[in-house]
Protein: Thiamine-monophosphate kinase
Amino acid sequence: MIEDKNQQRTDLSTLGEFGLIDHLTKNFKINHTSTVKSIGDDAAVLNFEKKKIVVTTDLLVEGVHFDLSYVPLKHLGYKSVVVNLSDVYAMNAKATQITVSVAVSNRFPLEALEDLYAGIETAAKLYNIDVVGGDTSSSTKGLIISVTAIGELEKDEEVYRAGAKPNDLLVVTGDLGGAYMGLQVLEREKEVFKVNPNNQPDLDAYSYIIERQLKPEARQDIVKLLADLEVKPTSMIDISDGLSSEVLHLCKHSDVGCDLYEEKIPLDPVVISSCEEFNIDSTMVALNGGEDYELLFTISQDDFPKIKANPNLTIIGHIREKEAGAHLVTRADSRIPLKAQGWKNFES
Amino acid sequence: MIEDKNQQRTDLSTLGEFGLIDHLTKNFKINHTSTVKSIGDDAAVLNFEKKKIVVTTDLLVEGVHFDLSYVPLKHLGYKSVVVNLSDVYAMNAKATQITVSVAVSNRFPLEALEDLYAGIETAAKLYNIDVVGGDTSSSTKGLIISVTAIGELEKDEEVYRAGAKPNDLLVVTGDLGGAYMGLQVLEREKEVFKVNPNNQPDLDAYSYIIERQLKPEARQDIVKLLADLEVKPTSMIDISDGLSSEVLHLCKHSDVGCDLYEEKIPLDPVVISSCEEFNIDSTMVALNGGEDYELLFTISQDDFPKIKANPNLTIIGHIREKEAGAHLVTRADSRIPLKAQGWKNFES
Structure:
């Protein structure tokens, strides 16, 4: 599906490990005063003065977390950074540094790694992140990317999964289900391509959901918005595995129940129309689709006036006592217990 | 070679991601006051007060960095932590936290991951490290481990690769070449085992070098020793790729040359005897063997009285002006330019 217009293939062995990492990261800029020493020593040195920090890490494996038959390497580099930053923002922190480790089999030429790192660099620039460490090595099969992200916290601004209280409002950013439906479109086109490699798909109508899948964004803006609105969520998590799974995490960690209203779940028109086309229930997609990288949080009802009518935020339910359980309240007003079905990587 | 005495095989899908990471890390203890929030949220929260920190990361891939036909999983877990801590100590820092991400194919049962995490836990206990994050996911092939280590620095105590000055002494800890010779013994036994699986090898004579390969230690003690001796190295690096490669790194980063004396290179008697047995030159093994995880550093000549006669430290040469180049001075008193041959992962 993705035509390789880059005919040049430079073997990785021509550079060796040290030449390679120097080459790939030579344009990376350092912007944060907290970065004392970046790539090029045994470890990076960082100085956050008195600030607390957050640390999160993710490992992405070809064939499990991404499919290079329809994911351009530049997008993959970008996404591998973004999914980690999303975890930093979910702590109500400001992302500042990342390290990136990459392992590739010898089927990848230098130009492929250059594309991957171009995506990493683009994300680093846009989110104002210093790339302070990492390495490259070989793998026996496929591409493996490990990113660790570090962020800094203003004094006591961290927000955990625990902290939601009965009567708190349940709020979600953006809209849901787009990344999953984008994946369905890409998988379908992959099958079409297998049958007819000359077919040129017209994907314009799906561009929003395809972008949600291939080039998601992390909600850096929400951390700033909440600070500007002087709202500190009582609990927060990012939506990587689907709304249902994340609501259950908040409830479990906070020792509470909740009512989630089906009619309130924010859906983009393209998600709705593609769900109709694929004959999938859009609520199921929003609940279990995953990879939306929106933020889910709870706020005290006292903060309602500060967030109401904000186009970035949708109130989708409220927290209840633990004994009430966690339920989806359907449009037909029936109550269905929420189940986590998002994460299927170990099921085969 | 390694008999699987553990007959129980529990499929990973019985736990799912969240149950799995909870299960594997449930015995992990938190000891550092700098660990505010450990595993179980979107990110760990750490508080180093005014201290600077160091961050380093490594990605280990089955078939490239380790061979499970002779590496027990518990040892592998231990080693994957130690190799990262070694980078922290090479900055003259105190290691405090790690995150661990693991991806495994479905050929691994739960019991295999329990062994791996038992090794991680053992290393964390011995080196007094909090395991504060990480995840598990599936891979399409083999085992992949990514560890990020964090350490803290007392005010301005960091030591870089840059900083060595002409006339500084070049010092190495412990002895060299053991890990490489241990690997040679294990590779030989693997070949023997392929021919005769009932052969019970007697590896007692090689136990020192096999342990250097399978269960290396990081020189935490040296950071403390140097502080006690009130010696701050002018430059430092850990020896992961072989002495030759690391000396060249120090010279390049410090913009200096050096003379390294062959007769001074510390070798264990078992390394010498196994080199004779395998008909390999022991100096070549020490220069290019790698994986010894000793520390290489330079000190001002003024500090010589503080370190002399210390059994942990060997002076193996001295720094010269850049124009003099970097040379090995042989026992026959000839000068051979040093070459980095240690890292061959991209050569096939």
Observations:
- The longest strand of chain A covers residues 94-104.
- The two ends of chain A are 26 Å apart (CA to CA).
- Chain A touches chain B through 73 residues (CB under 8 Å).
